[in-house]
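FAQ

Q: What does a record look like?
A: Structure on top, sequence underneath. For example:
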């Protein structure tokens, strides 16, 4: 226990001090190029977030239109019976064959 106290009071702060010391950023080479690329990407992301937040109503309207369109397409393409068959936590939907299609083609 005494060793643990000595390590906690002496070595840990020294290690933190050496790890957290200020290092000037790289301006040349691979790491400099990476830092510039990252800074540009971060700035573009921030501008995009600000753009969306300032136009929140338009963005939400776009999401509603896209979601409604996807729901309509799913409703038109999936001829499902109106009752779900529940098995444990999963909800399954029983589908009907389209008129004029033989059963083996439908099962593929």
């Amino acid at each position: 226990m005494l060793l643990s106290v000595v390590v906690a009071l002496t070595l840990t702060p020294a290690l933190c001090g050496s790890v957290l010391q200020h290092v000037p950023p790289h301006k040349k080479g691979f790491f400099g190029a990476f830092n510039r690329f990252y800074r540009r990407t971060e700035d573009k992301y921030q501008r995009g977030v600000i753009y969306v937040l300032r136009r929140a109503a338009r963005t939400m309207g776009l999401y509603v239109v896209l979601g409604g369109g996807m729901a309509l397409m799913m409703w038109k393409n999936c001829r499902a019976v109106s009752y779900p068959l529940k098995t444990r936590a999963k909800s399954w939907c029983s589908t009907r064959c389209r008129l004029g299609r033989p059963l083996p083609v439908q099962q593929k």
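Q: Is there anything notable about this one?
A: Residues 26-79 form one domain.
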